[in-house]
Design brief:
- The complex is a heterotrimer of chains A (274), B (256) and C (177).
- Chain A has 274 residues and is mostly helical.
- Chain A has helices at 40-65, 90-95, 101-122, 138-160, 188-196, 200-225, 227-233, 235-261, and one strand spanning 37-39.
- Chain A has 2 domains: 18-65; 87-261, no CATH class.
- Helices cover 53% and strands 1% of the residues of chain A.
- Chain A starts with 36 loop residues before the first strand and ends in a 13-residue tail after the last helix.
- By secondary structure, chain B is mainly α.
- Chain B has one domain: Cytochrome Bc1 Complex, Chain C.
- In chain B, helix 5 packs antiparallel against helix 7 (106-133) and helix 6 crosses helix 7 (106-133).
- With 177 residues, chain C is of the alpha+beta class.
- Chain C folds into 2 domains: 1-44; 49-176, 3-layer Sandwich (Rieske Iron-sulfur Protein).
- Chain C is built from 3 helices and 12 strands.
- In chain C, the strands form 3 sheets. Chain C has a 6-stranded antiparallel β-sheet. In chain C, strands 5-6-7-8 form a 4-stranded antiparallel β-sheet, with no helix packed on it. A two-stranded antiparallel sheet of chain C has the order 11-12.
- In chain C, a hairpin with a 4-residue loop joins strand 5 and strand 6.
- The radius of gyration of chain C is 27 Å and the shape is elongated.
- The chains are: A mainly alpha (274), B mainly alpha (256), C alpha+beta (177).
- Chains A and B meet through strand 1, helix 1, helix 3 and helix 4 of A and helix 3, strand 1, helix 5, helix 6 and helix 7 of B.
């Protein structure tokens, strides 16, 4: 708020339009030469015009060679094999192999959207604003890149490496031959109780504890190793950041559990399974 | 000859009709350059003067503007396609077949519409990455980042709702799978955790609300059509307005 | 509230409460009407109770005769007949039957079922549904009630999600014919 407002340009009754008002306050152009700015017309507009021309030409050119697909008319009795979603959802479709639909189809997308929205409030590092830098915000850039990479790795797998019955097909394999059926996925609690020779209840309890331990360790160890990080963020922000981060890292961990140990569910409750 | 041309063009630019529309001449003065920007409804989204750094492609990647352009192209081609397409489960597929075979330039407009849609998902995503990498979401631009995330979600929803309209196998099964996921929503879906306990049934849960029925049928097609052509584009326009307005208010993030 | 400890509602408070209350009620009412409007009360979908012919039409094994029209398979085993719904329990695709492997494979995410509907592999969280069936006493045809489904809670085993077959072969989901 200006301490005291005064008229820089006394309003003339003949004028109908005032270009600007001056107010006291901080502004990004303080102590900067006015020559830092250039007229939008024509310097900005000609760039925009060229982009419009270029993109339109590219689209028209591509439209000659890339035909929009139209398959057979919708029919409920046969599902195309493999059934693939549009490419930008193939990452989620790939996750559906490893997670129940409520996690892969609802939980993870909602968490991604909420997580993205929270970024400005969790990342309070004031450095790295307005220029490209890695060294000044290592954690922020690496976790964003990790998430992005994960998203696009799953998309690439979905687009190029999934074939009949959603099995893995290398590009040089015959995509029209069905692969042998691989059955037999286990659940971690069941496996634990069998291997350790304990009751089903104890197996369940150990699996639940392992899950808790993952989050507990993930929260406590970095707090000890990077005391500054915790101090800067504050406890609440730290827990929110690390929980989101651990959930993101948990996704490839679950995928690995499935691929290496054939584990379908890591924890089982009467209401939901993860 | 050139004299005659000059006479004609001068006569044109000094005519009352021209002056009523453009209101200023075209002499190369700072005043005219400023007037060009702020006396034009489209151009005045921009500031009269822009930071030298903020128009560098190597900083901006020009992805936000390209997204807007693709949205505009999608609107135009989408409206054109609407002239030949009826969201009736019995004829929707044949309408698309017609567009691809007997409508003049039908394949062109459908191909451009599809490519621009895929492109828009991509450019919005890259734009977000650019904004992240330059820290342009940091104060005072937190709110605009949130609006941007909403626009990303709306872009994906627009793409997804458009997927059902051709009513082919691809469409039906993508939407069957997508809405079955809605049925798995915790609390609100019949197959989600705690859904059945809360009294959700196939004919009253969130999937039923989305499809207007228990299966992907005529009601679902009409709902997705209305969402795709009216509701979601309107929402995008509203959020775009907020997005651009905030860009102007918060200023350019780059080097000063 | 008055500062002098008097809990009396002033005229201003009263109108404020009535005004804001009325506003909230109006907004709530219109939100409810918006919400309710999305749920159709009359549906024009395909029939959910239908006849599929006589039990003698179905030999041993699996019949795909009604898959296209009605989304069910009819299975005859040693004990009798049941009608299994051809909707994958993962995300609603239609699994394909492979007679050589005696298994259902879902093309969407690779769920595997045996002929009884048990999950042998893949992401499916539950067993295939079986629909309620009974014999029409008049013409002897089987009547299927598509929306009345058997959905038992499976047990995790080493081979996948299982339910004891005997517990599924009960009325009204099984015909001992």
């Amino acid at each position: 708020m200006p301490e005291k407002s005064f008229e820089v340009f006394p309003r003339s009754p003949k004028k109908t339009y005032g270009l600007m008002e001056l107010v006291k306050g901080t502004s990004s152009s303080v102590e900067k030469e006015p020559e830092d700015t250039i007229f939008s017309w024509p310097h900005l507009f000609y760039i925009e015009f060229l982009v419009v021309l270029g993109v339109t030409a590219l689209l028209l050119f591509l439209s000659l060679y890339v035909q929009a697909p139209l398959e057979e008319e919708a029919s409920r009795d046969t599902t195309p094999n493999p059934m693939k979603a549009p490419w930008y959802f193939l990452g989620l479709q790939e996750l559906l192999v490893f997670f129940d639909p409520w996690i892969a189809g609802v939980g993870i997308p909602v968490l991604i959207i909420i997580g993205l929205m929270l970024i400005p409030f969790l990342d309070i590092n004031s450095k790295g604003k307005g220029y490209y830098t890695f060294s000044e915000r290592k954690f922020a850039i690496s976790s964003y890149s990790f998430g992005m990479a994960l998203w696009f790795v799953f998309i690439v797998i979905g687009v190029w490496f999934r074939g009949l019955d959603w099995n893995w097909y290398w590009p040089w394999e015959n995509g029209h031959m069905h692969k042998p059926v691989v059955a037999g996925l286990g659940d971690l609690p069941v496996m634990l109780s069998r291997v350790l020779g304990i009751s089903a209840f104890a197996g369940n309890a150990i699996a639940d504890l392992l899950m808790l331990a993952y989050f507990a360790i993930g929260l406590i160890i970095p707090a000890y190793l990077f005391k500054d990080f915790l101090k800067k963020l504050g406890l609440f922000r730290y827990i929110a950041t690390m929980s989101l981060f651990l959930m993101m890292v948990g996704i490839p961990i679950k995928v690995a559990l499935r691929l290496v140990f054939s584990i379908k569910y890591a924890i089982i409750t009467p209401w939901f399974k993860i | 000859m050139s004299n005659l041309w000059k006479k004609i063009s001068d006569g044109f630019t000094s005519s009352p009709v021209y002056k009523a529309i453009f209101r200023h001449g075209y002499d190369d003065t700072p005043r005219t350059r400023a007037l060009t920007t702020f006396s034009n409804v489209l151009y005045h989204l921009h500031p009269v003067k822009t930071r030298r750094e903020s128009i560098k492609i190597r900083y901006t990647w020009c992805m936000g503007g390209t997204s807007l352009l693709l949205f505009a192209i999608l609107t135009v081609t989408g409206v054109l396609l609407m002239f030949y397409y009826v969201p009736d489960a019995r004829r929707a597929y044949n309408d698309i077949k017609d567009i691809m075979t007997v409508v003049s330039f039908g394949p062109t407009f459908r191909n451009v519409h599809r490519l621009a849609a895929h492109g828009m998902v991509f450019t919005v995503w890259v734009h977000m990455t650019r904004v992240f990498l330059t820290g342009a979401y940091k104060p005072p631009r937190e709110f605009n980042w949130i609006v941007g995330v909403l626009l990303l979600a709306l872009t994906l929803l627009l793409s997804w709702t458009g997927y059902l309209l051709p009513w082919d196998q691809l469409a039906l099964w993508a939407i069957t799978v997508g809405t079955k996921m809605a049925a798995a929503t915790p609390l609100f879906g019949v197959e989600g955790p705690f859904g059945a306990q809360l009294g959700m049934r196939p004919d009253n849960d969130v999937k039923f609300m989305l499809l207007g029925g228990t299966e992907v049928g005529q009601n679902a097609l009409l709902r997705f059509y209305v969402l795709h052509c009216v509701v979601l584009p309107l929402l995008v326009v509203v959020f775009l307005a907020v997005h651009f307005w905030r860009v102007r208010k918060d200023g350019f993030s780059g080097p000063l | 509230m008055n500062n002098n400890g008097d809990e009396q509602i002033t005229r201003r408070d009263f109108f404020s409460i009535v005004g804001w209350g009325g506003m909230a009620a109006t907004l709530g009412g219109s939100a409810f009407s918006f919400y309710k409007f999305y749920f159709p009360n009359v549906l024009y979908e395909s029939q959910k109770v239908f006849k599929i012919g006589k039990p003698s039409d179905y030999p041993m094994g699996l019949s795909e005769k009604w898959k296209k029209e009605r989304q069910i398979w009819v299975v005859r085993n040693e004990g009798g007949l049941y009608a299994m719904i051809s909707i994958c329990r993962h995300l609603g695709c239609t699994p394909n039957w492979f007679d050589d492997k005696k298994k259902f494979l879902c093309p969407c995410h690779g769920s595997i079922y045996d002929i009884a509907g048990n999950v042998l592999g893949g992401p499916a969280p539950k067993l295939l549904w079986r629909a309620a069936i009974k014999i029409d006493p008049v013409d002897g045809q089987i009547i299927v009630d598509f929306n009345h489904r058997q959905d038992p809670d499976p047990i995790s085993t080493e081979n996948g999600l299982m339910v004891e077959e005997a517990s599924r072969e009960v009325e009204p989901f099984f015909l001992k014919v």
